[in-house]
Specification:
194 residues, mainly alpha, two-stranded parallel ribbon, 4% strand
Length: 194
């Protein structure tokens, strides 16, 4: 009987000892839940903001179009020079021009190819620099917008939605960031005109 009573008492003590630990674990989980609430985390669809912001609509689209036109022009010039070289080779192989004429025309084509490559390279460097400046301006606007929106430190974590697999749409602050980016862009534009 003493053995049964002792076993029951030991079991009761074990349950009593486990009770507060279970409560402490629950309390810790509740604390984590309370600390990381839905308003502490937010995400931004950066690509959407950049594609829809006034900066892109006013300047980015024009820069993109300028880059595409330059690339198309380079491709056309390259094809034209290749076609001339192929025609020259064909004429020479058929014996329609002399070796001296073929060499002179080939040197002329090579000079034009070198001039084209030099001008295309300079143009590409200019476009790269313009794209670099544009990208930096966009990133600066995005960063400033997020900082202003989170000036009250309401969010403990703001992430780029590109890495998200699944998230509640109530955590999406993309519209607010877009609006703030447009406000900052308008203010920058106004200050630049002064």
């Amino acid at each position: 009987m003493k053995k049964i009573l002792f076993t029951a008492l030991a079991a009761a003590l074990a349950l009593t000892a486990c009770g507060p630990k279970a409560t402490e674990t629950t309390t810790a989980a509740e604390e984590v839940t309370r600390q990381v609430g839905s308003s502490d985390i937010a995400y931004v669809q950066v690509e959407a903001v950049l594609a829809e912001c006034d900066l892109f609509k006013n300047e980015g689209a024009a820069l993109q179009e300028k880059t595409q036109k330059a690339q198309k022009s380079w491709a056309q010039r390259e094809q034209k020079l290749q076609a001339e070289a192929a025609q020259l080779q064909e004429k020479y192989q058929k014996g329609l021009i002399t070796t001296n004429d073929a060499q002179a025309q080939q040197e002329s084509i090579q000079k034009r190819v070198a001039a084209y490559q030099s001008s295309a390279q300079k143009e590409a460097q200019t476009l790269d620099e313009e794209n670099y400046v544009f990208t930096n301006r966009a990133q600066d606007l995005m960063q400033r917008a997020v900082q202003e929106l989170n000036a009250d430190k309401r969010y403990k974590l703001i992430i780029n939605a590109t890495a998200l697999i699944d998230a509640d749409t109530t955590l999406n602050i993309t519209p607010a960031v877009l609006q703030k980016v447009n406000e900052l862009y308008a203010a920058d534009k106004k200050n630049t005109k002064k």
